[in-house]
Amino acid sequence: MRRIIGLILVVALTIAASLASSFRDTLWAGYRDYISPWLAELPAGPPRPALSPRIVVALARGLRMDASRQMETLNDLRRRGADVTLMLDAPTYRLPRWLTLISGASAQAHGVTNNYPARLGSVDTLIRQAQANGRNTAFIGSQQFDEVLGAGAGRFELTEGLDMNERDDLAITATLAVLSDPVSPASLVFTELALLEESARFGPRGYDIAVNATDRRLRALLDAIDLNTTTLIVVSDRGVIFGPAGTLDGGDETEVARAPMVLAGAGIEPGAQALINATDVAPTLAALAGAPMPVHAQGQIALSVLNIGSATAADADAPPILNESMWASAAQLTAFYERWSEVANTPRFAAETLRLHESRIRNGEVAAYQSFVMSVTAQAQAARDGRLATERARRLPALMGAGLLALAVVLVAIGGRMWQPLAGAALYLPAWYAFVFFVQGNRLSLSMFPDSDPATFFAAFERDAALSLGLLCLLVAATTGEQEDGLEAISTVMNALALVVCAHLAAMMWFYWQWSFDFTWNLPASSALVMALMALSHIGALSAPVSPALPNLPVPLMAAIIALMVYGVARQRAERNRRRWWR
Fold first, then answer.
1. 138 and which of 20, 86, 155, 305 could share a cystine (Cβ 3.0–4.6 Å)?
2. Do 96 and 16 belong to one domain?
3. How far is the C-alpha of 415 from the C-alpha of 417, rounded, in Å?
4. Cβ-count burial of 88 within 10 angstroms (0-12 exposed, 13-18 middle, 19+ buried)?
């Protein structure tokens, strides 16, 4: 029976490889094409008096925190205004971060997880609210910049079709023209500076040159702005990592997930410093512009960077702007999380929490507003964790049964000759992952997928895994010289491969227990997702691609042939050693 099992495993492992690759692509597609259930139509609040007559936002794509500290113009702005560090959550690809910055919604809420989504969804943004309430808006940048951020904007200036330096030069020139336009003045201007991100692919040296060039352009913009009547904001969408194959982003590494934001001018508190979430940017800009809060925002107003203490409405009998801004944010968060509770099928909590803090927030107590935000956010997290725990409890019995069944099958398949497959798998797995993480420098991070496309990573990973699995088969086959025949040697080698596959299936079972495979209301932790995709790719490596023109090579079949050849050599050597010992 043990001999026949080896032949069965040749077929079973080949089929498993094909299924694993297909399921890996399906799993990634489920994450990539995630549809947010949180984007319901919600009522928007009324506009408020603005803290700043005009706001100019320069979005410096790919500006790292450490590089921003070396920029003379940005340091000048820091001395005049507020120095903010943004905390970004994965995925930190370009497009998801843009949407978070202007909507205040996380990727789980706005539904965009990569740079090339099938749909952009209908998340509300600061631009839509500002334009709908009489604030003229303008965008200067690429076509994608306009498609994502500029929906509803009053004016758009395209900067594509030029080389990198000319494009950013044109962006600054067009921004200055918009600011000096006497016919249709814009009170909210967004300018895209792309040189940093595009130069980063040339390595640290090219990036440093782009940093200096971007700083000079920001100086030209600053020199043309009166900070008494205008607010200048320079913000990065995320940082980048310099890797051997180019720049990386998308993950939660510190270099990527910490980004600079510098604010100076009207409405900004000089000398302020803050550490805020990326979801706080849109509510803060809405408070500056006097626009209604984006209805899907999950963040709060960064009050510490705003100079609101002496700002009041024009009517002396009207409540101070601080009170109005805090109440607008609290009311918007309440509406969002009431709807959130309905979709998540959890008890409502936001309205009751607001009632406990309402009078104090309306009276302008900052501590009451911050307490409300902390409370409603913690309750939302607890409700999310509670639903996840319930779903995990439902999946656990089935997973335990499947795990015990798989263990029984493995023990029966291996039979009495366990040491060779077990030793081979036990040595192989840590050696393989030491190679992947320490030698190749990979990590459990979405940053492994350049420009949010994992195809290149999967291909390289499967190629290396196929080679390493072949080496494992060769080493295990070399220990089969004492076995009775070639079929038993094949079974030993196949059992070693099966144990490696079982280890990765165990990782998949853990992922399924934690997050399921169907992302309908919640996104998995990015590190767990990458782990699952790696595990499936490793199993998929048992069907190794040779070239696009040829069918995949079945590694189990090749391993069986190698096992027969190596067994013949090992058997002859064992016979010679046995005869020498008897003499």
1. 155
2. no
3. 6
4. buried
The end-to-end CA distance of the chain, in Å, is: 35
Burial category of 6 from C-beta neighbours within 10 Å (exposed 0-12, middle 13-18, buried 19 and up):
buried
**CA–CA separation, 403 vs 409, rounded Å?**
10
Q: pLDDT tens digits for 458-478?
A: 999 999 999 999 899 888 888
Nearest one of 464, 489, 484, 488 to 567, comparing CA atoms: 489
Same domain, 27 and 139: no
b/e string for 519-528 if b means 16 or more Cβ within 10 A? Answer: bebbbbebee
Structure token digits, residue 512: 């399924």
Nearest C-alpha neighbor of 60 from the set 215, 206, 176: 215
Give the span between the Cα atoms of 96 and 279, in whole angstroms. 11
Global pTM value? 0.91
- For 15-18, which contacts have Cβ atoms below 8 Å and span 24 or more sequence positions? 16/501, 16/539, 16/542, 17/539, 17/540, 17/541, 17/542, 17/543, 17/554, 17/555, 17/556, 18/540, 18/543, 18/552
C-alpha 268, offset from chain centre: 30
Domain that includes residue 571, residue range: 2-34+388-577
Q: Is 294 part of a structural domain of the chain?
A: yes
> CA nearest 528: which of 388, 378, 340?
388
Q: Which residues pair with 275 in a beta bridge?
A: 85
Same domain, residue pair 204 and 288: yes
Q: DSSP letter for 51, please.
A: S
Number of domains forming the structure of the chain: 2
Cα–Cα–Cα angle for 208, 213, 219, rounded to 5 degrees? 130
Q: Do 440 and 545 share a domain, yes or no?
A: yes
Nearest to 148 by CA among 182, 77, 87, 97: 97
Lowest mean pLDDT among 32-41, 449-458, 551-560: 551-560
Same domain for 22 and 65, yes or no, is no
For residue 126, give the CATH number of its domain: 3.40.720.10
CA–CA distance, 171 with 153 (Å, rounded to integer): 17
DSSP letter for each residue of 368-403: HHHHHHHHHHHHHHHHHHHHHHHHHHHHHHHHHHHH
The pLDDT value recorded for residue 542 is: 93
Residue with tokens 């336009």: 181
Backbone angles phi, psi at 75, to 5 degrees: -65, -35
pLDDT, tens digit, 9 for 90 and up, residues 138-158: 999 888 777 777 666 778 888
The structure tokens 């919604």 sit at 105
Tokens linked to 179: 């600011």
For CA atoms 431, 432, 433, 438, the dihedral sign is: positive
> Does some domain include residue 28?
yes
Beta bridge partners of 82: 263
Phi-psi region of 500 (alpha: psi -120 to 50; beta: other; left: phi over 0): alpha
> Is residue 341 situated within a structural domain?
no
Angle at 432 between CA 428 and CA 433, to 5 degrees: 125
Q: Residue 33 CB: number of other CB atoms within 10 A? A: 14
Q: Are residues 281 and 393 in the same domain?
A: no
